[in-house]
Amino acid sequence: MEISQSLQTAKQLLGKEVEVTMDRPLGSKHPKHDFVYEANYGFIEGIKAPDGEDLDSYFFHNQRITKVCITYTYIVTI
C-alpha cells in the first residue's frame, strides 16, 4: 500500500507539539459546500501539504474548539 505524501508529512510530527488553528469548529457549516463539520477542523500553519496549503488537522472532541490550541498529533487510520 502506498502512503500518501500528506500522511508522510504528518508522520514526521508524531510525538511533537504543534500549534493547530481550528478555523472550522465542530458543527460549523462549510463556507462553499452544503455540509456540516462533524469534527473540529483546522490546519497546522507553516507545514505544507502536497496541495500547497497548510496541512489539515482534525481534533476529535465532543465540544466545539474555537481557539488556537496546542496538542500532540496522532495519526488515526481506518
What does this structure look like?
- There is one protein chain.
- By secondary structure, the protein is mostly beta strands.
- The protein has one domain.
- The protein contains one helix and four strands.
- It has one helix spanning 5-11, and strands at residues 17-24, 40-48, 54-59, 69-72.
- Strands 3-2-1-4 form a four-stranded antiparallel sheet, covered by helices on one side.
- A hairpin with a 5-residue loop joins strand 2 and strand 3 (54-59).
- One of its GO terms (molecular function) is inorganic diphosphate phosphatase activity.
- InterPro entries: Pyrophosphatase_sf.
Q: What distinguishing features does this structure have?
A:
4-stranded antiparallel β-sheet; 1 helix; mainly beta; 78 residues; globular
Q: Compute the gyration radius: what is it?
A: 13 Å
N-to-C SSE series? HEEEE
Shape: globular
Report the major sheet: 4 strands, antiparallel
> pLDDT below 50 for ≥5 consecutive residues: which ranges?
none
Number of strands: 4
State the strand order across the main sheet: 3-2-1-4
Strand content: 25-35%
Would you tell me the structural class of the helices and strands?
A: mainly beta
Number of helices: 1
How many separate domains make up the residues? 1
N→C terminal distance: 14 Å
- What do the pLDDT scores average to? 81
Give the helix level as a range of percent.
Answer: under 10%
